[in-house]
Hints:
The protein is an alpha+beta fold and 81 residues long. The chain has 1 helix and 2 strands; from the N terminus they run αββ. The chain has one helix at residues 2-32; strands at residues 41-45, 48-52. Strands 1-2 form a two-stranded antiparallel sheet.
Amino acid sequence: MALVRRVAAVIPLVGAVTTAAALTGAAFLTVAHAGCDEAGRFVRTGDSIQFVGGCVNGADLPAAPTAEAEDVDRFGGSKKP
Length: 81
């Protein structure tokens, strides 16, 4: 009876470790087969750092939303009523 309890206590741990290993393997395979020839790099230019290269062109990204500084609640991020 004690052996059955020990096995029953270890089964969730084995399941969790197996799931973690499978998810880690899937993440590595996804990154390895992403299809990007140049990963890109960060370059320091003066006082700023820029990302150069990579698979994403800045023109492909949507523009950041702008809001008037006085209409934005600093803590919540939403517009004041």
